[in-house]
Specification:
The protein is an alpha/beta fold and about 675 residues long. The chain is built from 18 helices and 27 strands.
C-alpha cells in the first residue's frame, strides 16, 4: 500500500512541476548530459571526495563557450518517498553549491567530458556526524546560463556502518530462441548479443571483471540464473551456422568467435568464488503449465538435461537447493514440484505474494514462506519492489551509470531509514537484475554492489535462513493456471513416442534422437504456452525427420508374384536406411499361406535395396494377398501393413490331402448328426 502511495506522490510532483518549467534533471534541445563516472560513495574515514565526470553533447549549430560545471547538493534524504521523487525534481533545498569553470568550447555535433570534485569533509551544509545520502544536481553552463542538468545521489559515510544490510542479488539471462526448427539462425543479432558489450554478454563480462578484481580468498556472492538452452544455442553458433537465406557462416568467423568467447567467459564466472549458478529446466518451460498439462515427466527430464548442459561447461556439479521458476511463474502444484526436486528456496518475483510493509514502516520483508501441497515449507526470496521500479524506468536506465548510482542510492536510503536492528534481528533486501538492462549498466552496477560498506552480499540460500525475522506464511497472489491445449499436448506425446521408436531402430550411436528430443523441449518453452501454434513448427520438424527414417525401411511392394508349383520364395525389396544401419523385423501375415521357415525376419538394413526372402506355401489355388509388416525393436509398427498379391496356379499336394481329409471328417460328422436326428423323429 505504501508503495502505491509513493508512486502517487511522484506522479503528483511531476504534474506540479511540468507546467512551470523543466525539472532539475533536464536535457535541453541542444545539449544533453550523461554520467560517465561517479564515486559510488565517499567517506571521511577514507576518501571524502565526491568525484564526477559527465559527457556533454552539443546537438546545436553554434559553439558554446565560457563553460562551467555547477554542483548543488540538497538536504539529506529522510525517506524513500523523498528519494524517489528527487530523482525527478532534484534537490529542492540546497545546502551546498559550487560552480567550477571549464576550459575550451563545446563545438556543434561534438561531445566533451567534464570533471568536477567536492571534498565533502570540508563542504558547508554536509553532516559531519552521521552517515547520510544527499541529492546532487550537476549542470553544465555557458556564459552562466544552465544548458542541461542531471540529478544523482551522493553517499557520504562518517564512520563504518555498524550493521550492514544483507543483500541477495541475482542476474537472470533472458531466454531466447535464436535458431529455427530447421536449424538455421533466425535471430541474426544473436551472435552480437553474446559480445562483451552485447545484451547477453555484458552481464557475464561485468561479472568476470568483478571476480578478477577480488582479493585472494574473497568471494562475490551473486546468483546467476541461466536457461540451459541459451548455452546449447551458443554452442551451435560457435560451431558455425547457416542463415535463413542459405548463407553459411563457418566456424572461426566473427559470429562463431563471439559465441565461443561468451561460452568461455560464462564457464569462468560459473566457477567463480561465491557465484551460485541456478539452472532452469532446459528450454525454460513454465512449471505450472507443464504440470497442469500432464507433462511432469518431461519437466523432470528437462531439469536433468539442463543441469547436465551447464555442468558440462565447468565439470562441477551445481547446487539445486535454490530454484528460479522460468518467467517467475508459480502455482501450488509448481511449488510442490520444486520441493520434490530438492529446492528449499525460490527466487521469486517482487509481486509473487502480497507484501505488507514491515511493522516499523520500512520496506516489505524480503522473504516469505509458502507451503507445498504436502505441507512442507518453502522460502521465497522477493526483490524490493521500489528498486525493481527504478530498473523499469526507461528515462533512468538510458543513462546507465546514473541508473546504477540511483539503485545504490535507494539501497542506502532503505538501509538508513530503519534504525540499527537489535539482535537477533538481521535486515535484508533482495535485488533481481534482468539481462534486459542496458549493457553499459552492468559494470558500474556490480562495482557498486561489491565492497559497499552498508551492504553485505549474501548467497541466496544463506540469505533465506539468515534474515530475521523470517517472512510471514502467505499464499501466492495470483497462481499461474496456464496449460497447453490438450491437442498440443497430444502432439508432444506423439512425437516423443516416434523419437523413441526411431531410437530403438538405431544400431550405432547417433546424436539425432537427442537433437529431436531437444526440439520437442523447445516446443514446450514458455513463449508457446500462449502461442502454441508457433510451437508446432518444432513438432512438425520432428515428425518430418522421423518419417523420413520410417519411410526408409518400408518395403517396395508394387509387384505381384506367381507360383506354378504351389510354393516359392518371395523376395521383399527394402528401402534406403541412410548412413546408419537400422534394425527392424519384417513379418508376413496371411491365412492362405504357410511359412515353413517362419513368418518373421529380424534384419539389419545396411544398404539400399536390401532383399529379405521368405519361403511360402499356398494353401489354395488362386490369387491371395499377403500383408507385409515392418516392426521396430520397441514393438511399434512402422506404418500400416502393405499388401502383396500372390497367384498360385498349382496347389501343394500335401496341403491338398490335408484339406481333403479335413473335409471328409466334417462330412462324416454331419452325416452322423443327421442320422441321429432322423432316428429320434421316427421314434
Amino acid at each position: 500500500m505504501e508503495r502505491a502511495i509513493r508512486a502517487l506522490l511522484v506522479i503528483a510532483i511531476l504534474a506540479f512541476i511540468v507546467p512551470f518549467g523543466l525539472p532539475a534533471s533536464a536535457q535541453s534541445t541542444t545539449v544533453s548530459l550523461s554520467l560517465l563516472s561517479q564515486s559510488p560513495w565517499s567517506a571521511r574515514y577514507g576518501d571524502p571526495r565526491f568525484r564526477i565526470s559527465i559527457v556533454a553533447t552539443n546537438f546545436g549549430t553554434i559553439p558554446l563557450g565560457h563553460l562551467s560545471v555547477g554542483i548543488s547538493i540538497g538536504a539529506h534524504y529522510e525517506t524513500v518517498v523523498g528519494y524517489e521523487s528527487s530523482l525527478v525534481e532534484g534537490p529542492t533545498n540546497t545546502v551546498f553549491q559550487r560552480v567550477q569553470p571549464e576550459d575550451g568550447r563545446l563545438e556543434p555535433n561534438t561531445s566533451t567530458t567534464l570533471f568536477a570534485s567536492v571534498d565533502l569533509s570540508a563542504a558547508n551544509g554536509i553532516d559531519q556526524t552521521d552517515n547520510q545520502v544527499y541529492p546532487a544536481r550537476v549542470d553544465v553552463r555557458s556564459n552562466g546560463s544552465v544548458l542541461a542538468s542531471l540529478t544523482t545521489p551522493v553517499l557520504y559515510f562518517i564512520r563504518r556502518p555498524e550493521a550492514p544490510m544483507l543483500l541477495s542479488s541475482w542476474i537472470e539471462l533472458a531466454p531466447t530462441i535464436a535458431f529455427g526448427s530447421d536449424g538455421r539462425l533466425l535471430d541474426t543479432a544473436f551472435p552480437d548479443a553474446l559480445r562483451p558489450q552485447g545484451q547477453l554478454g555484458a552481464p557475464i563480462a561485468a561479472l568476470e571483471g568483478a571476480l578478477a578484481g577480488l582479493r585472494p580468498g574473497r568471494a562475490f556472492p551473486m546468483g546467476l540464473v541461466v536457461e540451459p538452452a541459451l548455452v546449447e544455442q551458443a554452442q551451435r553458433a560457435a560451431g558455425g551456422y547457416t542463415l535463413t537465406d542459405g548463407t553459411v557462416v563457418p566456424k572461426g568467423a566473427d559470429g562463431p568467435l563471439r559465441a565461443a568467447g561468451f561460452l568461455d567467459s560464462l564457464s569462468h564466472v560459473m566457477d567463480g568464488p561465491g557465484v551460485r549458478t541456478v539452472a532452469t529446466p532446459f528450454a525454460g518451460p513454465t512449471i505450472p503449465s507443464m504440470v497442469a498439462s500432464g507433462l511432469a515427466h518431461d519437466l523432470a527430464t528437462q531439469r536433468s538435461l539442463g543441469l547436465a548442459t551447464l555442468q558440462s561447461l565447468t565439470g562441477t556439479a551445481l547446487q539445486t537447493d535454490v530454484a528460479r521458476p522460468p518467467s517467475g511463474s508459480l502455482s501450488d502444484d509448481a511449488i510442490g514440484w520444486l520441493a520434490d526436486a530438492g529446492a528449499g528456496t525460490i527466487l521469486a518475483d517482487a509481486d509473487t505474494v502480497d507484501r505488507p510493509m514491515q511493522s516499523d514502516g520500512t520496506n516489505p520483508a524480503p522473504t516469505a514462506t509458502v507451503s507445498a501441497p504436502d505441507g512442507s515449507p518453502m522460502t521465497l526470496v522477493l526483490p524490493d519492489p521500489g528498486i525493481e521500479g527504478l530498473l523499469g524506468r526507461s528515462d533512468l536506465v538510458e543513462d546507465p551509470v546514473r541508473a546504477a548510482q540511483a539503485v545504490l542510492g535507494e539501497l542506502a536510503v532503505i538501509w538508513k531509514e530503519a534504525p540499527v536492528p537489535e539482535a537477533p534481528h538481521v535486515r535484508g533486501i533482495a535485488l533481481a537484475l534482468p539481462s534486459t538492462l542496458p549493457p553499459g549498466m552492468w559494470a558500474p552496477m556490480l562495482a557498486r554492489l561489491q565492497g559497499t560498506p552498508f551492504l553485505r552480499l549474501t548467497d541466496a540460500g544463506a540469505f533465506a535462513t539468515s534474515v530475521n525475522p523470517q517472512g510471514d506464511p502467505t499464499v501466492l497472489r495470483s497462481p499461474d493456471a496456464s496449460a497447453f491445449p490438450a491437442s498440443y499436448t497430444e502432439q508432444i506425446r506423439e512425437q516423443q513416442h516416434r523419437v523413441a521408436t526411431y531410437r530403438s531402430m538405431l544400431t550405432q550411436a547417433s546424436p539425432v534422437p537427442d537433437e529431436l528430443t531437444r526440439d520437442i523441449y523447445y516446443a514446450e518453452s514458455a513463449r508457446y504456452v500462449t502461442d502454441w501454434e508457433a510451437g508446432t513448427s518444432w513438432l512438425n520438424a520432428v515428425a518430418a525427420t522421423t518419417q523420413q527414417a520410417f519411410d526408409s525401411v518400408k518395403p517396395q511392394v508394387g509387384q505381384g508374384f506367381t507360383f506354378t508349383s504351389g510354393e516359392g520364395t518371395i523376395p521383399i525389396l527394402m528401402g534406403d536406411p541412410g548412413l546408419i544401419p537400422l534394425r527392424v523385423t519384417v513379418e508376413l501375415q496371411s491365412s492362405q499361406f504357410d511359412f515353413p521357415d517362419g513368418s518373421q525376419r529380424e534384419v539389419i538394413l545396411e544398404r539400399p535395396d536390401q532383399v529379405v526372402s521368405f519361403r511360402v506355401i499356398a494353401k489354395a489355388a488362386g490369387q491371395n494377398p499377403i500383408l507385409v509388416d515392418v516392426i521396430a525393436p520397441n514393438g511399434d509398427e512402422i506404418g500400416d501393413p502393405q499388401a502383396i498379391v500372390v497367384r498360385s496356379t498349382a496347389v501343394n499336394h500335401i496341403a491338398l490331402l490335408v484339406t481333403l481329409a479335413a473335409a471328409g471328417v466334417l462330412a462324416l460328422l454331419y452325416s452322423r448328426r443327421w442320422w441321429f436326428r432322423r432316428t429320434k423323429v421316427s421314434s
